[in-house]
Input
Amino acid sequence: MAEPTALPVDELTPLEATIELARLAEEIARHDRAYYQSDAPAISDADYDALRRRNAAIEARFPDLVRADSPSRRVGAVPAEGFGKVRHARPMLSLDNAFSDEDVAEFVARIRRFLGFDETRAVELVAEPKIDGLSISLRYEHGRFVQGATRGDGAEGEDVTANLRTLKDLPQQLSGSVPDVLEIRGEVYMLRADFLSMNETRRNDGEKTLFANPRNAAAGSLRQLDPKITAGRPLSLFCYALGETSESIAETHWDFLARLRAWGFKVNDRVRLCQGVEDALAFYHAIGDERALLPYDIDGVVYKVNRFDWQNRLGQVSRSPRWATAHKFPAEQVSTILREIGISVGRTGALTPFAILEPVTVGGVTVGRATLHNEDEILRKDFREGDTVIIQRAGDVIPQVVAVVEAKRPAEARPFEPKETCPVCGSHAVKPEGEAIRRCTGGLTCDAQRVERLIHFASRNAFDIEGLGEKNVDFLFRSGRIQSPADIFRLEERENQTLLPLRGQPGWGAKSTQKLFEAIRARRVISLERFIYGLGIRQVGAATARLLAHHYRSLDAWRNAMAAAAEDREGEAWRQLTAIDQIGPAVAGDIADFFLEEHNRQALDDLIGQLQRVEDFVPSARTDSPVAGKTVVFTGSLQTLSRDEAKARAQELGAKVAGSVSAKTDYVIAGADAGSKLAKARELEIRILTEEDWLALIGG
Ligand code: IVH
Output
């Protein structure tokens, strides 16, 4: 699996590249974890490098498809081999976020409550631009710079002293009287102009990888094992916080910033002393308007309580200080033309509308397509082809069309009319009352659904057949070579009998054909959970397939039970199925519907006939992990793990993954934009972990 697929990079279609980049991001992240967190590399260095090279080559060909979680952008995510570790004398904290003016007012109100002040008491704040770079810690002894480190996990970072010495903004020797020990914190960043010209030079030099944005460029440049490379990169530095110190330096943050300047550090000249919330918000809105004109990227404003004695009294909660918060700017939005509303047909017949846009850059990435969710949303927001629309990329998520600029609507633009037929097979497409999704009723007579099912069958979490990506499945289907999953296993045999062998077809050499056959052969033995997932039953995702495998253990037991449950929805088999935690009547109903279809049962038998063995499920014996036996709930979007991966990993460690929060829940892992589940967890006082906390828990 470590091997790059046979498909040459310059033959990938954009769709294939998208899928391949997703696969590589996941796979490389998995190897990174195995290597860095478990000290157990699963593949050789050469294979690992090959994966990274392939990722870089695809990104170089499709710069628009670079993923937010791409391994090339995650240069800083894991401690690189070769850097020493530095334990921070005082932990490097992160900041709580405020997203609205009300949040900021509440931040100050909380401070007053905590300090026992009434509402009239003024709380001075220092407002500072929140620089979008990476934080570092600088240690000075007797005024000389002796050590510099990255933040790392907050407790321990990497020793990047030699690299930091190459920064023009970093004073090697401080002027004036300085405490014996002085640790200063700040942000390494790259000016936008420097970033652009550096990328330009790289492009001219024929470098394959360009940096996606100044932040990544700064992180990638600082974390070079060879300081000579860092020296050639245009890095800048602002200092803004105090770490360890052998004597007290100032009474207020404002005065501390003045001393920093006097010692020779660069301090942002846009910092402002504010008398209260109103002042602070005025600063936020003013600098927000100027944001695009600043020479560097900022992603918000940081407010800090000015008085150090108050800061000390306020202390911290989990990993953030109570005396500071980051007021984030809203997601960047841009306008462009909605050229066309396209409809894609999924594996289960769901018709999903998407926007084909005049390509435009937003948040540093070129966007040509965006999701439109469903037809109700299109009608509600009245999106029309030809409209000028506002799109946004919120953080790392898929671009969305958020609004239409009605003043710019062309006279001939007509309201969107949902089609009642499938764009692929022409079958009736129905949208049941009260449901958001319209579905093609063509079932397996719809080519789109058949192809999608085959793609699903061969995909990573299912049969994981290397070389059977979207493009190849599509080709094999259209050329009549495969119609059902079982046909995949007959390909090789047919190859030797047909007058039109696969090798020799455009894009199919003897070598790639052979590799594909090998990959297929290797899957004649398959685990029960992959088998179940591969069938593509509606609502049976990887986690549900695993639950089913866990419960029924063998293919025969599962198949007999499902057939029985389908026959009698009041009988014992049905009762057992719906008694499995997280399998409700809706999911059970979809499984039963699948088994009631004659052609599904035939396809299943046909497939089993081609396999050598479906392996029984062997429950993992992990009872020793810190989460064994615990019930956990994931909510919100996770940054480093896909949801499936997070669930699978939790289950491997013996945890039970639940879909909703109840009194039985032990941990709720809350990613970005967590909603009602998080609220419920708070209400029930269940332990809430950030993604980082969770990784620390299971990594340890
Ligand atoms: S103060 C305990 N000030 O934002 C306070 N942080 O989300 C520590 N950042 O890790 C941070 N500009 O990398 C502070 N003026 C500023 C900042 C700033 C950018 C970053 C920093 C920190 C992150 C927290």
